[in-house]
């Protein structure tokens, strides 16, 4: 029964990974990273349930707290960058010299 939750977690992780690789918008990158973290949370809770232990759920709560902080700081940085450049595309970061590699 718990194998289904692992499969869903793997599919969510793959979707988040594809979103990070393919998207060029900063907001979409944050959404994709949230999907990755939620997949990890689902796997942690499932592992805890399979071992009949609550530690997986406790650790998932800490991951949710870190994810909330990441979103708050990330959205604030996105708002500042949008005010400065007028766009949230990754190419605008490379044009301003913020990213040293070529996209």
Description:
With 103 residues, the protein is mainly α. Helix content is 80%, strand content 0%. It has helices at residues 3-22, 26-50, 55-85, 90-95. The model has no long low-confidence stretch (mean pLDDT 89).
Give descriptors for this structure.
single chain; 103 residues; mainly alpha
Provide mean pLDDT, rounded.
89
% residues in beta strands: under 5%
Determine the N-to-C terminus distance.
43 Å
The coarse overall form would be elongated
Helix count from the secondary structure assignment: 4
The helix/strand class is: mainly alpha
Task: Return residue spans where pLDDT drops below 50 for at least 5 consecutive residues.
Answer: none
What is the number of beta strands? 0
Summarize the main sheet. none
> Which range best describes the helical content: under 10%, 10-25%, 25-40%, 40-55%, 55-70% or over 70%?
over 70%
Q: What does the radius of gyration come to?
A: 17 Å
Order of helices and strands: HHHH
Brief rundown of the structure:
With 103 residues, the chain is an all-alpha fold. Helix content is 80%, strand content 0%.
């Amino acid at each position: 029964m718990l194998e289904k939750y692992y499969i869903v977690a793997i599919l969510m992780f793959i979707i988040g990974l594809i979103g990070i690789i393919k998207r060029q918008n900063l907001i979409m990158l944050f959404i994709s990273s949230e999907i990755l973290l939620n997949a990890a949370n689902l796997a942690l809770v499932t592992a805890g349930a399979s071992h009949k232990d609550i530690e997986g759920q406790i650790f998932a709560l800490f991951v949710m707290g870190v994810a909330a902080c990441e979103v708050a700081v990330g959205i604030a940085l996105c708002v500042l960058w949008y005010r400065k450049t007028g766009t949230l595309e990754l190419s605008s970061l490379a044009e301003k010299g913020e990213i040293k590699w070529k996209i």
